[in-house]
Structure formats: C-alpha cells, structure tokens
C-alpha cells in the first residue's frame, strides 16, 4: 500500500469537522510554520521538489520565490479550485472529504507569502463545496487559526471563498484573477506575470488546491523527507482522478513510482477494464494532453515500462509520449471511437474559448465542425489534413495556453489514430453505426478469456 | 528630466536604437517599410490595446545581449518590449509568414466576402491584410456567422458580421467618454459587440469608434452617398471647435462634404480625436477652412491603385529572401526598393 | 421592479467587505448568483441594472460579465433545470443515451422548456464528476451514475415536489 500524505485521513468519520481533524493531528503544520521565518518555509517547499498540481508542473518553491515584495503593497495568495479540465475531479474530492487540509495548507502558505487576504476561487458548479469550505473556515477562525493575530504571532489572515459561474478558462491563472476582480474571464497578456502584477495589480501567487494541501505534509515532515518519496523530479504523492472505461473510477493518491499498467489493472486502483474489454487508448493527464494508444501508454517508444510520473509520462515528447497534466486519467476501451471522443473535446474547447484571440476563437469552432463532419461519415480525406493544419496554426500562436490545449488533443488523435479517421472517410455509412475497434495497434495486454 | 536609456534592436537585419520600454512593433515602425508587422488590434493611442488579433506575431531569434536565447514561441510584437541586443525576424521568418497566413485565414473565416459593397472597402485593414497574406480561396466550407445590421443611435451603425473583435472601440469608449454603453458580450465564437438592450451611443467623442475600427463594422450613418471611398477626394481641413482640436479630413465630391473623419497617420491611426459635432454636423464646405489635399496612407490598397484587379502580388517576403545575404546594417531604402511590388523578382 | 430585500442588502455589504476598499466590482459574480437564485433562475435586464447600481458599475459591465459565464441564464427557464454533461468522459459512459431519454420523456429538445414551464433541458460541458458519469446538475446538487430509471425517478420527484 502506497504511502498517503493527503488522503490518509480523508475517510475518518467526522474529519470534515475541526475537532476530529485536530484530534487526528490537524493544524500541526500551522503551529510549526508560524514559528518559522516565512523565507524558511519557502525554502522547505523548494527542497521538497513539489511541482504545481494544476497542470503545468512548475516547481512551487521557485514560483513562490519569484513573488515581488514591494514595500507597502499587499500580496495575495489565490487558491485555484476552478477544476474544469475534463477528466479531472481530484480537487473536489479533497475539498469535499478533508476540507481542513486545504485550509491548513492555505494558512501556512499565506504566512509564507505574506498574504493577509487569501481567496479560494472555486468553480461555480461546486456550490455545495462552498458551504463545506466556509464551515471549515469558520471553525478554524473560532479556534484561533484564522483571523487576527493567529496563535498570538501577530499574523492576520482571512480566507474567502469566491464562486465562479461556469467558465473553464477561469482556471487559467490570469483569467481567474480577472474573474475574481468581477470581470469577464479574459486571460491577460503576459508579461507582467501575476508574481509582479496580479490581483488588483498586486503581487499574487496562484496555486492549485492539491499543491497548497501538499504544503501541510511538507512542513510536517520537512522538505527533504518529502522529496524522498517518489522518483527523480516527481516527488511526493499525486492525486489521480481516474474515469472512463474502468472498473473502479475515482480519486487515488499515488506514489509516483507505480507503472501505468499497475494503475490501470491492479485492484488497488482502477481495477481493470469492465466487461473483459481491452484497453484501446488513454488520456493520462486531463483532456488537454495527448491521447496515447495502449501500446505507447504502457511502454515508451523505447519499449521501457511507462510509470505514473511527470518524466515517464512525458517520455518521447509529443511524438510518442504525453503529460501528467492535471492528473485526469481517461481510459477508452476497445468499443470507443477516437473520432467521436475527440469531437467532444473539440466542442468543449470551442465552448470554453474566451474569444479574445483570433486563432483560438475561430480555430476551435472550425475544428469542431470538421470533426463533426468526419464523425457523421461526411468527411473527406483532405479534411484530416486540414484539421492537422488548423491545429498547427492555433498552437503556440494564442494569448493563453487554451489554444494549445485545444490543438493538442486533435493533433495526438490524428497522429496516433489516423487510420481510424481514414476509416471514417472510407466507410461513411458503417462509421455512423459501428466503431473501428482495435485494429490499429499491437494488443499489448493479453486478457485471459 | 531623467535621461531616457536607449537600447539597440535589430529587426529583419536592420538595427535601430530606441528608448527602453518601446515595443517591437513601435521599433519596427521607427524603421518603417516592410519590416513593420501588420497590426489589427493594437492602437498606440489606446491603453491596454493589442495582443488579441495575433497578426503582428514575430520571431525573436535572440532575446537580448544578456540572455541571447531565442524565444520559443512567436510573440505579439505590439505587446512585447524590446531588450538591448534583441534580434527580431518578421518578414525574414518562414515561421512568421506561416503563422500570419493562419491568422489572416482565421480572421477571414467568419468575415463576409462583401468587400465590393462594404463602405469600408478601399480603407479596410483586413482587406489589405488578406490581399497581402491571404490565400486565394477560403478553405472554410461552413456557414458563416451572420448578424443583422444594427443602429447604435442616430450616428453609428454596427455591422457585427464584419467585426474582428479587436476591442478598439471598447477601449475608445472607456478612455474617451465618461460612460460606456457598448461592449463585448458572450464569449468564444459567440462573442459580439453590442449594447445588450437598445441603447444609443451618443457621447460627444463616441464617433471616434468609427475611425478606430479596422474593418467596416462601425460606420458613419451620416456618410452621404456611400460611394466607394476612392471616388472621393480627401482634403485636410480645420475649424475652431470648442470641444476638440477641429483638425479633420474631409471627404468631398465636388463641393459636397460626404463625411468627416479624424486625420490619420501612416499607420492608419487617428492623429487627434475629434468630437461628434465636427464629425457628424459640419457637412458644408463653408464650415471648414481647407488646407489642401491629404496624403493617403501607404497601408491602404487605394493608394496602390490596383484594387480593381485582384491579382495576388508576388509575396514580398520571397523578394527579400532571394539572393540577399543578411547584412547587419542595411540601408532602409535598399530594403524598400527590394520590396517594391513593381520591381521584378528573380526566380 | 423587484428590489433586493434588506436581508439581501446586508449580504451584499458582507460580500463587498471581503475585498479591499474600492474593489466592490469583485462582488459582481456572487451578486449575480444571488439574484439569479432568488428571482426564478434567470437574470433580466432590470435585475442586472439593479446589480449595477448597487455596485456603482455601468450596466454594460454587468451585461458583459453575465453573458460570459455559462451558469447565468439570460432567458427565463423552467422550474427544474437539468444540465446534463456531454463531454468525453461522460460520453464514454453513455451520456448520449441519458440526453436522448430525457428528450423523449419530456418531449423537448436541448435548451428548451416544457410548455408547463416545469422543466428545462440543457447540455453542459464537464462538471468535474467524470468518475461518476453519466451525470447532471440539478439545482445545486449533482446527480451521478445516471441510468434511465434514475432519470425517471428524478422527474417524478420534481413533479411531486411541485404538487406537494
Ligand atoms: C485553460 C487553462 C485552464 C486551467 N485550469 C486550471 C484549473 O482548473 N485548476 C488549476 O489548478 N489550474 C488550472 N490551470 C493552470 C493554472 O493556470 C495555473 O498554472 C495553476 O493554477 C498554478 O498552480 P500550480 O502551480 O499549483 O499548479 C489552467 C490553465 C489553463 C491554461
Ligand atoms: S487562447 Fe483562447 S482562451 Fe486563451 S486568450 Fe485566446 S481566445 Fe481566450
Ligand atoms: S466593431 Fe470594429 S473596433 Fe469594435 S471590436 Fe469590432 S472590429 Fe474592433
Ligand atoms: S496588433 Fe498585435 S496582436 Fe493585434
Ligand atoms: S465529463 Fe462529464 S463531468 Fe467530466
């Protein structure tokens, strides 16, 4: 059984409440951290090797050390709980089951960064979680862990929960800041970066829920100990939300040394594919990252075992690899149609584009329309190349990474499943009633009959 | 006054010295000629503008003297500041050319192909852009997004179908008038310029949105006999106005003033904002003191006189590439000669 | 015109106090939620104008924001709104079937409301419940692991709710 740092206590009866959480050792990191120098906390986070859990995997300690500290200007910490990347539902799980862990992490992080007003920006649809978090905040405040002069240290901090209202783009940190300022979620043009000019033009750090929760074990055990868990630059544990065609969808806390195969097939995690079906493909890190066919998913192009960590999932770059992303693990079995799945993602990105820059605003809708044509058996061979060309002209040419996020799934689907797209063109009738199946790759896992 | 520090930047092999904090686009404009990236959303007089249309993307092949690494992505030249020793490639970069073709195609995707009947025809920046960078035929086979024409009060008409969402008119209303009543509604490819509920744009400086609009989306309702603009003769004129500079361009036919616009510089930008009274109400030649004929900006297809025959000119980029060894410092004139569309290209 | 109650105005004050002085615009989205929740599930232009004046904003600033976010309804909706997720992971688990079933049961298409004004069907993009697919949002709750039977039961529940 892998070591758990975040969800270990998540199912203790009553852990949502302060008393139980405290009895189980909660808020110890606040007591410890508030006796430290803020810079020393940043140092521990650096040593831990923690990388942002929101998708980009940027080293958190380094991000914190970039925060500008001009005299007399407030600084802000904002927790990104927008969680809207298809396949991702891990932050929700953490906030629902063990909300105090996030609040605890936020207090320590706010102290480290000097934020006296900290905001949790949560996607609007998670309305009931707002109540859970506000309850936890009120309890922490009653017990002296929030508010004025926390634990007699002179540090003041308030945490507020702000609800979004349905916009994936508000997960992008500068769009989130705009939204928090009460505006449309249009990403800002960078530079300046939030670390210099963020919320209300003040220096701001935006971190993911899981990243901030991980600060708790880091302070409790020390950055060096934390760094010993995992492998290479993938330190600590990672929450993976697994979904699609698997027996046991759900949120798993993994130690990043397990293989992808173990994650999919072992009973401790996904428990294999239902109904004796075979694995066709998987998007290992949320809808934006490249889809991989089963053979490249389980082993790298070099034939080595692929592991559930940042480096191994990315092995082979975009040609034969993918990304850890947000940890949204989407599994497709042999009955699924890659063209149709890609179409739903293209529709998603078209729907979520803020519409500020032309390649993303116009390109996402164009891709969706072409995919719709292909899926409905009305496509032509040239449409596949056109699709490729469109995604290529969006990627890298937009204001924010949503453009890339829209381009990558389409690119990877064509790269690895071109035969399936062509089959749609060649079988315009059949493709509307049947799926292509598995023919495109060597079946890597022998499923006993 | 503190001394302004200057930095050296090289764009398409031409080096200039510019004040620190200058954007790549502005530095290119100081050089002039064909190294200037096209800008559909940036407007130097509107704070916060730019970054959106992506037509001005350039390649930064050297970040700076201190950190010479190239920038991995193309950058929006209108919103990227120059660094000392920076090297930029615009028309000498195939990546830029390719990306810009893409951007132009995206901008034209939902744009109606009604140039012959559009009253912006001849002074439309999108038309110029499509002409210079576009493909001959569209690859878009789906229905275009369309909107009804809409009056925004007595002076201004909105043809949303033509809008490219550059946001210039929004910044104009924000920065020139005390109360903005129009804005960008909805999101993604549903986004549109609108007032939401019937409202009229009537602030005394709101007419400037017509001049900043790079396409024919916001037009002057008082523009009489909407002739193709190239039949009208622009003259520079002024009057004493209590609320604005009163410096305008009159578009005349014979003795009639067909419309009044602000004066524009060679980049198509308004030199000084004018008020609604000058723009909409002063339609007699006697209202004005005529100074003389205006120069039409080199950016416009009218000045090139070949709008009638829509032939694709030889791409200017290739002309620059062909047989030219990169030189560290080039004479600006030699570059513009090379790019002279009438000059024969070697091939 | 409906006005915010004193109770609500107090809540607005509390909301505004969460932000630094002069940054009351930040309360806009929470306020629009509040208005929508208490005024039949949608935002009329009048409601938005009232929100604008409460926060000292121009009405256009409110329209711009309200039209950006997909949770705000700018047209009247039914008493019960079903928002069914149709993105990849839900599709893999049969969201198409669920949507088709609801359409058939209620006799309406997507983005339509039943003639009695009881139900509106909307399709939405990933709501962060992919592991519990197929799913829909109903009110502030998520209904997960949907089957045709479960959908029928929810519809019955709504109808009872309406008579009770
Ligand atoms: C389109 C888009 C959507 C994003 N959505 C989220 C999100 O829902 N949650 C999140 O934590 N980060 C999201 N991110 C990443 C954030 O911009 C940012 O990198 C992250 O919150 C930083 O936190 P971390 O360093 O702790 O990962 C998104 C980025 C993009 C471009
Ligand atoms: S890439 Fe898309 S989402 Fe990002 S700023 Fe541009 S239009 Fe908006
Ligand atoms: S109406 Fe004109 S100025 Fe306004 S956003 Fe559209 S194109 Fe730009
Ligand atoms: S002019 Fe630079 S992006 Fe539009
Ligand atoms: S795909 Fe439906 S909730 Fe995520």
Q: Could you explain how this protein is built, in words?
A:
The complex is a heterotrimer of chains A (449), B (347) and C (164). Chain A is of the alpha/beta class. Helix content of chain A is 42%, strand content 13%. In chain A, the strands form three sheets. A five-stranded mixed sheet of chain A has the order 8-7-11-9-10. Chain A starts with 17 loop residues before the first helix and ends in a 23-residue tail after the last helix. The model of chain A has no long low-confidence stretch (mean pLDDT 95). Chain B is α+β, with helices and mostly antiparallel strands. Chain B has four domains: 6-107, Ubiquitin-like (UB roll) (Roll); 117-224, Alpha-Beta Plaits (2-Layer Sandwich); 226-311, no CATH class; 316-346, no CATH class. Chain B is 20% helix and 18% strand. In chain B, strands 2-1-5-3-4 form a five-stranded mixed sheet, sandwiched between helices. A four-stranded antiparallel sheet of chain B has the order 13-12-11-14. Chain B has a three-stranded antiparallel sheet with strand order 6-7-10. The model of chain B is unreliable at 298-347 (pLDDT under 50). The mean pLDDT of chain C is 95. Helices cover 46% and strands 12% of the residues of chain C. A five-stranded mixed sheet of chain C has the order 2-3-1-4-5, covered by helices on one side. Chain C has helices spanning 6-16, 28-38, 45-54, 59-68, 88-92, 95-106, 148-163, and strands at residues 80-85, 112-113, 119-124, 136-138, 141-143. Chain C contains seven helices and five strands. The chains are: A alpha/beta (449), B alpha+beta (347), C alpha+beta (164). Chain A binds chain B through residues 167, 184-185, 189, 350-359, 361-366, 369, 386, 392-394, 396-399, and chain B through 50-54, 57, 73-74, 76, 79, 98-99, 101-103, 105-107, 109-110, 139-140, 142, 164-165, 167, 184, 186-191. The structure holds flavin mononucleotide (FMN), iron/sulfur cluster (2 copies) and FE2/S2 (inorganic) cluster (FES) (2 copies). One FE2/S2 (inorganic) cluster is lined by residues 39-42, 50-56, 76, 78 of chain B. One iron/sulfur cluster is lined by residues 169, 187, 353-357, 360-361, 398-400, 402-403 of chain A.
What is the CATH homology-level superfamily of the largest domain in chain A?
A: NADH-ubiquinone oxidoreductase 51kDa subunit
Task: Please state the structural category of chain A.
Answer: alpha/beta
Q: For the residues shown, what is the average pLDDT of chain C?
A: 95
What structural class do helix, strand and pairing data of chain C support? Answer: alpha+beta
What's the CATH topology label of the largest domain in chain A?
Rossmann fold
Query: By CATH's scheme, which homologous superfamily of the largest domain in chain C applies?
Result: Glutaredoxin
For the terminal residues of chain A, how far apart are their CA atoms?
29 Å
Q: Which blocks of ≥5 consecutive residues of chain C have pLDDT under 50?
A: none
**Count of the separate structural domains of chain A:** 3
Count of separate structural domains of chain C:
2
CATH class of the largest domain in chain A: Alpha Beta
Shape of chain C: elongated
Mean pLDDT of chain A: 95
What small ligands are held by the chains?
flavin mononucleotide, iron/sulfur cluster, FE2/S2 (inorganic) cluster
Order of helices and strands of chain A: HHHHEHHEHEHEHHEEEEHEEHHHEHHHH
| Count of alpha and pi helical runs of chain A | 18
């Amino acid at each position: 059984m892998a070591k758990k740092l975040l969800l270990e206590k998540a199912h203790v009866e009553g852990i949502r409440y302060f008393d139980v959480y405290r009895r189980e050792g909660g808020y110890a990191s606040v007591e410890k951290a508030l006796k430290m120098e803020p810079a020393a906390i940043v140092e521990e986070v650096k040593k831990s090797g923690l990388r942002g859990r929101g998708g980009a995997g940027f080293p958190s300690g380094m991000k914190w050390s970039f925060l500008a500290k001009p005299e007399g200007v407030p600084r802000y910490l904002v927790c990104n709980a927008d969680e809207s990347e298809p396949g991702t539902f891990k932050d929700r799980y953490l906030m629902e089951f063990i909300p105090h862990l996030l609040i605890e992490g936020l207090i320590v992080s706010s102290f480290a960064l000097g934020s006296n007003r900290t905001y949790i920006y949560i996607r609007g649809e998670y309305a009931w979680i707002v109540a859970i978090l506000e309850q936890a905040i009120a309890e922490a405040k009653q017990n002296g862990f929030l508010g004025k002069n926390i634990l007699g240290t002179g540090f003041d901090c308030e945490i507020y929960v702000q609800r979004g209202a349905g916009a994936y783009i508000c997960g992008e940190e500068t769009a989130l800041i705009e939204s928090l300022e009460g505006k449309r979620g249009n990403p800002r043009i960078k530079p300046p970066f939030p670390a210099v000019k963020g919320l209300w033009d003040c220096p701001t750090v935006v971190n993911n829920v899981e990243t901030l929760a991980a600060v708790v074990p880091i302070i409790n055990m020390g950055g060096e100990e934390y760094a010993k868990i995992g492998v290479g630059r993938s330190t600590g544990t990672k929450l993976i939300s697994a979904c699609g065609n698997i027996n046991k969808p759900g949120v798993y806390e993994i130690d990043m040394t397990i293989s992808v195969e173990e994650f999919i097939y072992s009973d401790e995690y996904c428990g294999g594919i239902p109904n004796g079906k075979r694995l066709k493909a998987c998007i290992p890190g949320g809808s934006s990252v490249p889809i991989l066919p089963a053979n490249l998913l389980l082993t790298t192009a070099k034939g080595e075992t692929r592991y559930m960590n940042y480096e191994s999932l990315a092995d082979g770059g975009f040609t034969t690899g993918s990304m850890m992303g947000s940890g949204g693990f989407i599994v497709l079995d042999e009955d699924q149609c890659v063209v149709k799945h890609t179409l739903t993602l293209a529709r998603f990105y078209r729907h979520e584009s803020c519409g500020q820059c032309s390649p993303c605003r116009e390109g996402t809708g164009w891709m969706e329309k072409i995919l719709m044509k292909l899926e409905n058996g009305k496509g032509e061979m040239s449409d596949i190349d056109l699709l490729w060309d469109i995604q290529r002209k969006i990627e890298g040419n937009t204001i924010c990474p949503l453009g890339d996020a829209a381009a990558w799934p389409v690119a990877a689907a064509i790269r690895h499943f071109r035969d399936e797209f062509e089959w749609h063109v060649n079988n315009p009738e059949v493709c509307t009633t049947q799926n292509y199946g598995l023919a495109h790759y060597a079946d890597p896992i022998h499923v006993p009959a | 006054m503190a001394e302004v520090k200057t930095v050296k930047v090289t764009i398409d092999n031409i080096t200039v010295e510019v004040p620190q904090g200058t954007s790549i686009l502005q530095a290119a404009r100081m050089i002039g000629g064909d190294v200037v990236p096209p800008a559909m959303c940036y407007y130097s007089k509107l704070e916060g503008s730019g970054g959106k249309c992506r037509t001005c993307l350039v390649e930064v092949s050297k970040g700076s003297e201190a950190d010479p690494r190239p920038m991995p992505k193309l950058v929006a030249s209108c919103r990227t500041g120059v660094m000392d020793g920076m090297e930029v490639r615009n028309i000498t970069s195939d990546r830029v050319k390719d990306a810009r073709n893409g951007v132009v195609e995206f901008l034209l995707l939902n744009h109606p192909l009604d140039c012959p009947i559009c009253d912006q025809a001849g002074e439309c920046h999108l038309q110029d852009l499509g002409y210079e960078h576009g493909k001959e035929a569209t690859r878009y086979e789906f229905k275009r997004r369309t909107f009804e024409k809409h009056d925004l009060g007595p002076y201004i008409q909105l043809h949303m179908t033509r809008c490219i969402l550059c946001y210039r008119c929004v910044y104009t209303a924000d920065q020139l008038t005390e109360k903005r009543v129009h804005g960008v509604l909805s999101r993604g490819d549903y986004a549109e310029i609108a007032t939401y509920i019937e409202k009229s744009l009537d602030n005394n400086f709101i007419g400037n949105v017509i001049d900043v609009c790079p396409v024919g989306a916001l037009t002057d309702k008082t523009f009489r006999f909407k002739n193709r603009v190239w039949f009208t003769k622009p003259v520079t004129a002024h009057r004493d106005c209590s609320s604005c500079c009163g410096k305008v361009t009159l578009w005349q036919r014979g003795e009639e003033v067909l419309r009044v616009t602000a004066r524009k510089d060679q980049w198509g930008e308004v030199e000084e904002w004018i008020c609604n009274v000058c723009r909409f109400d002063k339609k007699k030649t006697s209202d004005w003191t005529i100074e003389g004929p205006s120069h039409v900006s080199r950016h416009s297809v009218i000045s090139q006189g070949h709008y009638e025959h829509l032939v694709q000119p030889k791409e200017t980029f290739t002309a620059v590439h062909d047989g030219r060894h990169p030189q560290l410092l080039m004479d600006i004139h030699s570059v513009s000669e090379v790019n002279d569309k009438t000059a024969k290209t070697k091939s | 015109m409906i006005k915010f109650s004193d109770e609500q105005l107090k809540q607005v004050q509390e909301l505004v106090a969460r932000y630094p002085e002069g940054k009351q615009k930040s309360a806009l989205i929470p306020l629009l939620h509040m208005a929508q929740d208490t005024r039949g599930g949608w935002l009329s232009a009048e409601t938005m104008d009232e929100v604008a004046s409460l926060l000292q904003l121009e009405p256009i600033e409110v329209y711009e924001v309200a039209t950006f976010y997909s949770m705000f309804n700018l047209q009247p909706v039914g008493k019960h709104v079903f928002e069914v997720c149709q993105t990849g992971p839900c599709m893999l688990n049969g969201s198409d079937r669920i949507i088709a079933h609801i359409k058939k049961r209620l006799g309406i298409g997507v983005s339509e409301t039943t003639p009695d004004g009881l139900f509106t069907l909307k399709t939405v993009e990933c709501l962060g419940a992919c592991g519990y697919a197929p799913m829909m949002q109903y009110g502030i709750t998520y209904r997960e692991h949907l089957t045709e039977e479960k959908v029928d039961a929810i519809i019955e529940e709504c109808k009872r709710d309406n008579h009770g």
